[in-house]
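S.,

Sequence below, as promised.
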Amino acid sequence: MKKFLLPLAFLVFMGLVIFWANTNTMPLPLRRLYGGFPLADKIGHFVIYGVFAYLLTWAMPARRLHLGRFSLPLGIVIAAAFATLEEASQFLVARRTPDLLDLLLGYLGIYASTWIPCASKTNCKQDKSPGPERSAER
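The prediction came back faster than expected:
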């Protein structure tokens, strides 16, 4: 249960950022960060959704959604659904404009989050299948 506190706290932070963006009441430090350099909004989507997906997957490592032959970590599915719904919800807010590039960068951040545990080889399953480079070794 304690593992869910960090993803939940991050979800609250994301909810606040969405609320502030919808109501044009973004706190000055975040407004400066987003306006401080080009593409800050795009980088923000990548980082925020990547961190969210990583935290969810970390909190529920064994939970997977099985779709036929495919099996996806539940945290990845939840993060992608949240990113999609959040971007689509911008159609309902007059001062916001949905952007497919924002959504794509959110998805890329989610995808990148799956590689974070692989930075240390101990957390990744090694592919034992004979690939082109392995078959040459045999």
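The chain has one domain: 2-120.

Coffee later?
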